[in-house]
Amino acid sequence: QAAANTAAAQPAEVAAPQRLHSFLELQVAGVTTAESLRTALGYVYGVGTGAPWEYAPSSSEVNKDVLRLARHFGLPHLHEHAARWLAKGLTTANVVERLVTCEEFGLGLLREKIMEQLTKKPAELATVSSSAEIMKHPRILQDLLMHVASFASAGVAAAAAAAKKEEEAKEEKAREEKAKEEKQPEPEKPPVVEQPVSAAIKREREKPQEKPQGKAQDKVGERPVKKSRRGAAGACLPTPAAAAASFAFACAR
Fold first, then answer.
1. CA neighbours closer than 13 Å in the CB half-sphere of residue 177
2. Quick one: pLDDT band at residue 179, thresholds 50, 70, 90?
3. Phi, psi for 246 (deg, rounded to 5)
4. How many angstroms separate the CA atoms of 87 and 117, rounded?
5. What is the pLDDT of residues 90-130, one digit of tens each?
6. Which of 68, 95, 96, 227 is 20 to 30 Å apart from 89, CA to CA?
7. Looking at residue 51, what is its pLDDT?
8. E-strand spans in 145-242?
9. What is the overall mean pLDDT for the chain?
10. Residues 67, 105 contacting (CB under 8 angstroms)
């Protein structure tokens, strides 16, 4: 009894509590790559610390999973990084796949930008339009051809507008030149500069010129001589020809 009382007086041993380990489980449908989960966790835990962070997925499948995670957890900035990656490094081999991704995630504006970029390169456009992959997506092919048609019509309209603008500029320039010629004053004649003339030459120029009278006087003087000769002979003297004729007539007789 005493032993029983002693055992009852001693405190009973308390069993050590068992530690339960709990884990946070997140259910994400459609994610198949572990790299996308590491990228999303790195963004969540590193974006608020100011640590350098660069988005560089290794494949298009990883990028698609990042887009799904960003939408599921409401991470708009991470979604923007994944969307911009679709427009980088476009080639004829991956452009169709990226257009399909834009359709899957409702990135309509990015899809239009990629198509515009593709229509500006005729060689790449011809390669993509004749590929077997785009034949599996007729809607993308139809939209791409519509972009080509609209781009061609816009180019023709732009060329016509440029030609019209150039013609108007030429006409305006011609009108300005014509108005400038009409307003231009006639050139003034240079003033006549008188050369200095000496006083003697100036007096000689101002002196009135006298008419020569020597020949007239000689002619006047000759006429009386003829009259005097005519008066002395009493008759007009025969001319040499008449005298020769008379002499020849006399010899003949």
1. 6
2. confident
3. -65, -40
4. 10
5. 999 999 999 999 999 999 999 999 998 888 888 898 899 88
6. 68
7. 79
8. none
9. 76
10. yes
Cα angle for residues 142, 144, 145 (degrees, 5° grid): 65
Instruction: Report the alpha-carbon distance of residue 170 to residue 37 in Å, rounded.
Output: 65
Distance CA 86, CA 103 (A): 12
Which residues does 70 contact at the CB level (< 8 Å), separation at least 6?
Answer: 40, 76, 78, 79, 82
- Pick the more confident residue, 219 or 201: 201
For 202-213, write each residue's pLDDT tens digit: 667 666 665 555
- What is the reported pLDDT for 190? 67
27 contacts 34 by C-beta, under 8 angstroms:
no
Tokens representing residue 158 in the block: 């732009």
CA 209 to each of CA 198, 204, 205, 217, 248: distance values in angstroms, whole numbers, following the listed order: 19, 9, 9, 19, 56
Contacts 24+ apart (CB under 8 A), 55-59: 55/81, 55/82, 55/85, 57/82, 57/85, 59/33
**CA–CA distance from 229 to each of 10, 154, 226, 237, 238 (Å)?**
210, 119, 5, 9, 12
What count of other Cβ atoms lies within 10 Å of the Cβ of residue 39? Answer: 25
The answer to whether 47 and 77 are in contact (CB under 8 A) is: yes
Exposure class string for 136-174: b at 16+ Cβ within 10 A, else e = ebeebbebbeebbeeeeeeeeeeeeeeeeeeeeeeeeee
